[in-house]
Amino acid sequence: MSDILLADADALAAQVPDGAKLAVFKAEGGCAAMAATFALIRRGVRDLHLVTVPTSGLQADMLIGAGCVATVETSGVTLGEYGQAPCFGRAVRSGAIRVIDSTCPAVYAGLQAGEKGIPFLPLRGLIGSDIVRHRDDYRVIDNPLAADDPIVALPAIVPDIALFHAPLADRFGNVWIGRHAELKIMAHAARTTLVTCERLHDGNLLQDETLAPATIPEMYIGAVAVAERGAAPYGVTGLYEDDAGRLAAYAGMAKTEEGFAAWLEETVYGRPRIGVRGMAPAVAAE
Amino acid sequence: MSDILLADADALAAQVPDGAKLAVFKAEGGCAAMAATFALIRRGVRDLHLVTVPTSGLQADMLIGAGCVATVETSGVTLGEYGQAPCFGRAVRSGAIRVIDSTCPAVYAGLQAGEKGIPFLPLRGLIGSDIVRHRDDYRVIDNPLAADDPIVALPAIVPDIALFHAPLADRFGNVWIGRHAELKIMAHAARTTLVTCERLHDGNLLQDETLAPATIPEMYIGAVAVAERGAAPYGVTGLYEDDAGRLAAYAGMAKTEEGFAAWLEETVYGRPRIGVRGMAPAVAAE
Amino acid sequence: MAGDYALEELLIATVAGLLEGCGHIAVGVSSPIPGSAALLRRHRDREAGRRTRVSIIGTTIPAYRTDGGVDLFDSAGQGRVDAFFLSGGQIDGRANINLVGVGEGYPQQKVRWSGSFGSAYLYFMVPKVILFRLEHSRRTMVEAVDFVSAPGTSPPNVHRPGGPYALVTDLCLFRFDRRRARFSLASVHPGHTVGEVRDNTGFDFDIPETVPETAPPDAETLAVLRETVAPDIANPYPNFARRVWGARGVSGGVSGAA
Amino acid sequence: MAGDYALEELLIATVAGLLEGCGHIAVGVSSPIPGSAALLRRHRDREAGRRTRVSIIGTTIPAYRTDGGVDLFDSAGQGRVDAFFLSGGQIDGRANINLVGVGEGYPQQKVRWSGSFGSAYLYFMVPKVILFRLEHSRRTMVEAVDFVSAPGTSPPNVHRPGGPYALVTDLCLFRFDRRRARFSLASVHPGHTVGEVRDNTGFDFDIPETVPETAPPDAETLAVLRETVAPDIANPYPNFARRVWGARGVSGGVSGAA
User: Quick one: A163 and A253 in the same domain?
Assistant: First the structure.
């Protein structure tokens, strides 16, 4: 059963076809699959419909800057304390990408509808927001169980692929996600799920009573590849921290297209294929 | 903060008012709060609206037999391999209780609507079932995002109290539920949650990276009481097994009202208040 | 029972045949024969180099498990469950099933069973639902059920990727034609006759000109059942395994609820 | 800044005053002043024998945490979050907020910000939403926002248990009257004037005849901030704590993302 285990992040990225609806997880907590993102850019993926769950940072910004994205459906793309996401801003302003503005709980609700196999999920709030006004896939309906009670019906989000980084997986393809329960929703909603992990667990995660509750069974997983420091320059809780120098360096360099190209060169193209590890020390900050 | 920690299952049961909408968890996996159920019967609670999540066995059958229940909303009450639930059957046939028939995923979906604070959740299936025909709180609506696509809208289920047994809790009121993720949904949907647990964890469950993912934070918990063997005669995974002799004894005795009264006498009333432990060996099976 | 195999072994082999091509087979509670059939199917597929997943609710074995809770229903909604088993206190000729009760005046019927469980959903969502009922009589196989826990068929505008595929009893195997909403007798178990099936069935069904005998399990199948399936199914169903296969069925398994 | 306290300390104390009576205060990302105010509120309530919960997204401290994911939004939907903070690149006089961009021709506006995050939901569901914006100018306080990420008010038939309660800037404190959909100046921070507020605000608002000065933090409050709040808030915001409170703010906390 270990054909589910791939050699590296590049082998994983090879499984993402051009044009895929790809769901990626927010950067906080270290579950953004950055090594796989570098590999996606190296492989030259095109026309992605990116769904950020519910937001993104460096990951979406780099994919957009590298020309991999046709559409981004998001509640926010930001570098957080390092500032606005420069490639995202440029691409939206120029019309180079289509942006579908959403709001965090609507992204979750859409994925939960996908997870349950229902066509839509109603959600409170939202009414009167310009988000709703610009979304022709939302409907304001009457709550069928009460009088004069409008509510927004959100269509199910069914990504072709969910992509994230996890602290732990096993040889059977089971993936331990720790506190990030939203990754389960992503995996359930998506047609398949690709995962990089820090390391492999000996034995079967589903047979460990303390780890099984936060484990996504292999049934949902298309492929797993080990990528040590695979979230860097973001950190992973309890394992390594955000690389503030690298994140600040990106925020600075990506302000211009030339700077972004230089970043790609040194970070994505200019490295050995399995050289994500140790990247941070090798390239000094700003 | 340890006023959340009560002395025993009887103190916990005292917090369930007559007439409460009480959600209880299925017996499999040992999360049925049996010690607390015995205490509820001792306290003489009345007029419960019992919601079984999604089914129940001995727990619902005893509460019904003891006259604690006005309404039961359920996908099934059964003693499983020990046979039909005798008190449930008698009470439904005689009209002593109101039964609201449901189906497992509809119970979950109703609780998930309660969890999300939405008035209803649509669910596939169900159409054409006599369940729908007899539920005046369900509506078959048109999917607002597609033509000619009927779907059932299920109202949110918001229990006054969720009651279950857990392997572990801590002094702050955080509760570890292991694999039983549905208990989170119950706790989120209910106004408050009462929990018996096998034992107390030293320290704070939320600060343990491997236990936190399956922990319900104290914010959702009204009170916790330690009840060793609190699921007996059901078992708890990894701790103790179903007491087949006691379950078979119940199935036999409860076939008549006299037998059920004798069961109550020896199991519920005839014991010291904190005497749930060791119950099984004290009373021999059939 | 006929010859050198048990009725249970015949039924397991028959059901395993129906499960061909199912990538993920889920089995509910109290279903030792369907569970054994799913394990036999998985074994055969593995021998043929195919990966088949089996989820038996309430057990930690085999490798893929579901807790039978939200996950099971959601994964069926996602189209990730290919086969499931349902039964009924009553089953009628349109494959409607009744798990609630017998008699007029619902809810105060003269017989009350446990309830509909997940049938009203899974019957719609799982492509291949196999009905399984060991008591084949006019009491169970009725013209019209007294309560429709889950309907056998739906109008064309109702989203329904799944539904009934076959009905297996202690007497015979029926196939179900969803378009015509009608059962057809596919085979009669050794030792029984078409007439016996007709006499014990309360609904009309199609009877082809020749009705074959249900194929008995061959020696290889029996060996797999006794050596491989028995110890696995003894985990959730120790009593069943002991009754059908004796000590062999229990020695290899981990008994009880653990 | 005025006298022997920092502007941040004034703002923290002001916001903490607004949070009175909130049993559960949630704080989003990049919100060190609201976070500190919530911790100050919790400290005061604890001294008074009341239990107040604080959830700061992205930190493991204090004791109650949320991951800022589905749980946060669902618990707000359940009515379990009493106070939250929002900001806006633009805020207008009807308390509409804009986190998306500036200019005509959405989506190709001349300035594009990150996006609306959870505002379009939490603004409806949390009873006491405090708007917080440190740059008080005609660029940020506008007559009408260019994109409504979340509206300040809703028609009466829209389910809306929550909404804007106050707006805190570097110049002043506004209260918001939901019925009239209008801000009213509640106090002006020491060192600033009503005229300065008016000159820097692009929307109309009510000005009472006498507008008090925002009360500066007293010695006891400053002591609590410096001894108790500083080390706690240094966990999610080490740079902020270091800037406002120097080494004191960092020594007690656990720095970084762990």
Answer: yes
Cα–Cα distance between A151 and C137 in angstroms, integer? 51
Tell me the two tokens of residue A272: 């050995």
Cβ atoms < 10 Å from Cβ of B275: 12
- CA dist list (Å): A35 to A10, A164, B102, C2, C174: 8, 10, 47, 62, 54
> Does C have 3 or more CB contacts under 8 Å with D?
no
B134 and B266 belong to one structural domain = no
DSSP for D226-245 reads: IIIIHHHHTTT-HHHHHHHH
Residue with tokens 């959730």: C236
Give mean pLDDT in consecutive 10-residue pieces for chain C, a chain of 258 residues.
Answer: 80 98 91 95 96 81 61 96 97 98 96 97 98 97 98 98 98 98 98 98 98 97 96 86 76 33
Share of residues in chain B with pLDDT > 70 (%)? 94
The reply to whether residue B129 touches residue C150, judged by beta carbons under 8 angstroms, is yes
Residue C125 in contact with partner chain A when CB distance is under 8 A: yes
Strand, helix or coil at A286? Answer: coil
Q: Counting beta carbons within 10 angstroms of the beta carbon of residue A25, is it exposed (0 to 12), middle (13 to 18) or buried (19 or more)?
A: buried
User: Taking the domains of chain D in order of start, what are their residue ranges?
Assistant: 7-250
Contact residues, chain B, for D51 at CB < 8 Å: 1
ipTM here:
0.94
Q: Which two tokens stand for residue C2?
A: 């006929």
Cβ neighbourhood burial of C215 (10 Å; 0-12, 13-18, 19+): middle
Is the distance from CB of D162 to CB of D126 less than 8 angstroms? yes
Note whether A177 and A261 are same-domain residues.
yes
Neighbours of chain A (3+ CB pairs under 8 A): B, C, D
- Picking from B136, B155, B174, the residue at the C-terminal end of a domain is B155
Cα–Cα dist A70/B286, whole Å: 70
Q: Tell me the shortest Cα–Cα distance from A84 to chain B, in angstroms.
A: 31
Q: Do C74 and A172 touch (CB under 8 A)?
A: no
**Overall fold of domain C7-250:** Glutaconate Coenzyme A-transferase (3.40.1080)
Residue A284 placed within a domain:
no
CB contact at 8 A, C97 and C87: yes
Please give the Cα distance from B216 to B194 (Å, whole number).
12
Q: Is A60 exposed, middle or buried (0-12, 13-18, 19+ CB in 10 A)?
A: buried
Helix residue spans in chain A (DSSP H)? 9-13, 34-43, 58-65, 86-94, 104-116, 130-134, 182-189, 244-253, 257-264, 279-282
Total domains, chain A: 2
Put simply, whether D109 touches B (Cβ < 8 Å) is: no
CA distance A134 to chain D (A): 9
Give the span between the Cα atoms of C233 and C238, in whole angstroms: 7
More confident residue, B171 or D1: B171
Which residues of B, range 169-188, sit inside 8 Å of A by Cβ? 177-179, 181
CB within 8 A of A273, min separation 6: which ones? Answer: A8, A10, A42
Q: Does C42 touch chain A (CB under 8 A)?
A: no
Q: Are strands C141-142 and C90-92 parallel, antiparallel or unpaired?
A: parallel
Does A48 map to a domain?
yes
| pTM: predicted TM-score of the whole model, two decimal places | 0.94
Helix ranges (DSSP H) in chain C: 7-18, 32-47, 70-77, 119-125, 194-199, 219-224, 230-233, 238-245, 247-251
Residues 6+ apart with CB under 8 A from C65: A206, A217, C55, C56, C59
CB contact under 8 A, C64 and A115: no
Q: Alpha-carbon distance C134 to A111, whole Å?
A: 41
- Domain of B79 in residue numbering reads as 5-100+158-277
Does A171 lie in the same domain as A62?
Answer: yes
Looking at the fold, whether B233 and B114 belong to one and the same domain comes out as no
The C-alpha atoms of residue B44 and residue B18 are separated, in whole angstroms, by 9
In a shared domain, residues B10 and B88: yes
In a domain, A286, yes or no: no
